[in-house]
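Weekly puzzle thread! Below is a chain. First person to post its structure in token form gets bragging rights.
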Amino acid sequence: MSAISFVFTIAYVAKMLGEDEGWLHDLSIDMFPEDGCLHVYTGEDDGITAFTDDGIENLKHIIANMRADGRAPRRTAPTEWPSPRYSPEAYPTPIRAASSPARHSLAC
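Winning reply:
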């Protein structure tokens, strides 16, 4: 098992899944750290709920079960988010500086 290197805030997960953040918070109350649900403290009494990758998968299963039982609110449209992982595909192609010469190949 690898160490957790990042988490997703509940607001981010709600937008990503197209679900109501308040409802996800209600569902997360019964989740524990071993389920991938963490509480991140932002101040003395302030904090936010966050999920690991496994936590999001567990949350998806809980949501599916709630929908199957007819106990889920209407979904909103999910938002497409770029991958937060550090990969070459996560960043746009670098733009050459204006002072660098443009290389063109002209066929005659």
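Puzzle host: Confirmed. Bonus trivia for everyone else. Residues 8-76 form a domain with the Arc Repressor Mutant, subunit A fold (CATH 1.10.10).
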